[in-house]
Amino acid sequence: MTEPADARSELAGIAASLRAYLEWQQDTGATGIPRAPKRAAVAQAQAAHADAGPQTAAPAAPVPVVAAPVPPPQPTPRAPVPDAQAARRDAPAGPPVTPPDFETFALSAKPVAPVVAASAVLDTSPELRATRLPVMAAEVAACTRCVLSTTRTSTVFSRGNPDAKLVFVGEAPGAEEDASGLPFVGRAGQLLDKMIAAMGLSPERDVYVCNIIKCRPPENRPPKPEETEACIPYLHEQLALVDPKVIVALGNTAVSTLLGTKLGITKVRGQWKLYKGRTLVMPTYHPSYLLRPSAQQVEAKKQAWDDLQAVMKELGVKPPPTGRERAAKS
Predict the structure, then answer these.
(1) If 54 and its partner were Cys, which of 9, 184, 203, 300 is the partner (CB 3.0–4.6 Å)?
(2) What are the φ/ψ torsions at residue 278 (nearest 5 degrees)?
(3) Which class is domain 115-329?
């Protein structure tokens, strides 16, 4: 019967210890129980309770070590942040920033090698044309950007008046052009001159004539894409310097390159288009096509003349009187 008595004595000791601990808290003004009591203090209390025996009152609970409260960390003072809007408002006004215009991007897009600064190209003064175009012709003569430089006899830059408001753009030089260094001097060129004269214009004074590429492809084949890509910066600069009011694109290669279209000439001829969003383009047949005997030749010549008449109307050019009109006046 001793075990129940020992248990009661042990519970009585625990209750006494708890009561003593609570009284001590009241005396010291404590308001709670420490979250994590020191292990050494807990072990000491257990040892003291075991030595006291079942009939001995538990000693007063050990005084826990209460650390002095640590003040919370103070934030590091920061330098005052300036008012960005006030700074921008009070800052002295600088020169306005002008975004690059579309022409600059268009002239410099995917260049094989920049021919001249874009800002200079935008200057279309007669003085710049007179000085820059001959320099460009010399650069073209020394060009080795593509394989055509190894097969050409001479480069073909242009002919006509760079101050003209009408430009004819063809495909590439042929054998006669390769030999002479001038565009459109063979049979197709002779027909082109007759077409220009029928408009009441002079091939030497009133128009400027050039090609998409400056060297003759072997066997007069169409230019390859890499050849066109290598040579097209020259033409872009030419057209920017001449700054024509109207461009007549002769044939599929000229139309597709200037306008970036895959439509054939029969689909777009006679319809006004824009080169780089600013210069009027009239697509029409190449003179060499008009020379080929075919069932469509007569109709094609009539359509080409309709296209040139639209150009004349745009430029305000009146055609010369016909033979019948001259005879009637006389």
Answers:
(1) 9
(2) -140, -25
(3) alpha beta
